[in-house]
Each structure stands twice: as C-alpha cells, then as structure tokens.
Specification:
mainly alpha, MetI-like fold, 12 helices, 73% helix, 0% strand
C-alpha cells in the first residue's frame, strides 16, 4: 500500500518540476533574445514612441550599423487601453449575464445558456476578427470616420474603421464568455443555505444577490476577470485584424478622437511586424514585446492573488 501512494506523489512532483522549469526557461529565453534592444534602449523604451518607423529603420539597417534603439510607449498604451476598456465592458456584461443565468432563469434554460457561452468561449479568435472586419469596422467607419468633422479639420483622411474602438469591441466579445462562464460557476458554488438565510430575514431577491451571493462568489468572479484580462492582453490575431496596425501615441487635445485612431497592442505588433524579421534589431524588438507581455501577465497574476488574499482576510479567513 505504501509503494502505491508514493508513485503518484513522485509523478506529480516530477510534472510540477517540469512545468516550473519550462516557465523559467521561457522567461530566460525571451529576455535573452530581447537583450540587444533592452541594453541599447534602456528605460527609454518605456517612455518614447515611434515603433513603426524604428522597425522600418531596423529592417533596412546593415549588420555593421544595427538599429537597436526602440520606443514601445505607443504599444504599451494600445495594450493597456484596449484591454482596460474591453475588460470593464466585459465585466459589467459578464457578471450581469451570470446573475441572470443563475438567479432569473429556470434550470433548463440556465444550462442551455451556459452551454452556448462555453461554445462561444471556444470559438477561434480569427473568427471574431473576421466578424469584426465585416461588421464592426464598416459600422464605425460609416458612423464616425465619414461624418466626423474633426477628421477634416485635422486631416485624418487616411483613417478608416480599423482603430482602437473596433479593437475594444472585438476584444470585449472575445473575453465576455470567459467572465460569464467562471462567474456562473462561482455563483452556483454558493451554498443554497446562504440564499435561504437571506430570504428568512425578509431580504428581497436583488438584496440577496448584492449582499450575499456576490460577496460569497467574488473570489471566483475575480479569477474569471483576471483570466479574461490575461486573454485580452495576449490576444493577437483578432485584434491585429481590426486595430489598424500603427502604434500611435494619443493627442490629449483630441479627446474621443484618439479612440478612432489606429492602434497597435504588443501582441498584435508581433504578428504585424513578423514579416520584417531577419535582422538583429527587428528580432530583438519583437522579443521585447514578448518580454513585456510576460511581465504584465506576471504582475497581473501577482496583483490578483494579493487582492484575493486581502479579501479573504477581510472575510475572516486566514491563509
């Protein structure tokens, strides 16, 4: 009996060690390939823009005079803005949909909706991008670009419906199923006794949801939001199809018009600029995009864990 219990535990330790070693190797490899640009650019890569022109200069540079100075501020701006706004919209829609599915529909209808949501979560990202090209992009081009007087004033004739706003909408539809699915699981995991306690004290349904269900399920809901944020930050194909492909920095005086400008998140930059790979500068710059994505993802995961830990302490749980 003893030998039977040792083998599975040893096997689990081996798999865990392999997983950890793979992650460490991936970080080391990506940062190693990024080092030429990281060492040459320093902190200026986080404070300056001009990535599109710099990629062209690096592609045409010779081996004797490699272009290694890059500014990623426009890409970081595009990544954070598209992810932030799509996550806000997806969180509101996703939690609302999850509450409706769990609390306001019959079990049969609820199961049907959950199945549909999980099917949507498994749809390839390129399909969302294709739908965005034929629906979202023409809609915004007709609604804003063709009739927005500032485009005439500021001479933005080259802009079309491929912009940050289109990327936000497409990304929202991509990550909503993740938020809905995990929020539903979290709400269903709340014991029925808690609901019944609220009703026993004369609480209305909405108050039970707001004061009992959502606080009880918030750890699972936060996990869903974090997972959706991770997918949003790392999404490349669908966003690159509708974002416009230019790492433009915002002009504060233009206000909302900045959302109608082309953008280029980090993940999309790897796709859009991969055809220029072949020189040390371009290769290293694209690996810097990967290194920044890994760093943002790691910080997001650590931040979510700290927030969840603080919430558990506030609820009286000791980790």
């Amino acid at each position: 009996m003893k030998s039977k219990s040792v083998i599975p535990k040893t096997f689990i330790y081996i798999l865990s060690s392999i997983s950890i070693a793979t992650i460490i190797f991936m970080f080391i490899f990506v940062f190693y390939k990024s080092w030429p640009v990281l060492s040459a650019s320093g902190l200026s890569l986080l404070t300056t823009g001009g990535f599109d022109a710099q990629i062209q200069a690096a592609f045409t540079s010779t081996s004797d005079s490699q272009m290694l100075h890059f500014g990623f501020l426009g890409l970081i701006y595009g990544t954070l803005m598209t992810t932030f706004f799509s996550l806000i919209i997806a969180t509101v829609i996703g939690i609302g949909a999850a509450i409706t599915i769990c609390e306001y529909t019959s079990p049969k209808v609820s199961d049907m909706f959950v199945s549909i949501v999980r099917v949507l979560a498994s749809v390839p990202s390129v399909v969302f991008g294709l739908v965005g090209i034929v629906t979202v992009v023409p809609f915004f081009q007709k609604l804003f670009v063709n009739h927005f007087e500032l485009f005439t004033v500021w001479n933005f004739a080259g802009w079309d419906g491929r912009n940050m706003l289109s990327a936000i909408i497409v990304l929202t539809f991509m990550i909503v199923p993740t938020v809905v699915s995990l929020s539903v699981d979290a709400l269903r995991a709340v014991p029925d006794s808690r609901r019944e306690t609220g009703y026993a004290f004369g609480m209305k349904k909405f108050r039970v949801i707001r004061r009992i269900l959502l606080p009880s399920a918030r750890s699972g809901i936060i996990a869903g939001v974090v997972l959706a944020a991770g997918r949003g930050i790392g999404e490349a194909i669908a966003v690159s199809m509708v974002c416009g492909g230019l790492g433009i920095l915002p002009t504060p005086s233009l206000g909302f018009v900045n959302f109608l400008a082309p953008t280029l998140p980090l993940a999309s930059a790897i796709i859009n600029k991969s055809e220029a790979m072949g020189s040390v500068g371009v290769d290293s710059a694209l690996f810097v995009c990967g290194a920044l994505l890994l760093t943002i993802g790691a910080l997001l995961s650590i931040g979510a864990r700290l927030i969840n830990k603080q919430m558990r302490k506030a609820d009286g749980f000791d980790d």
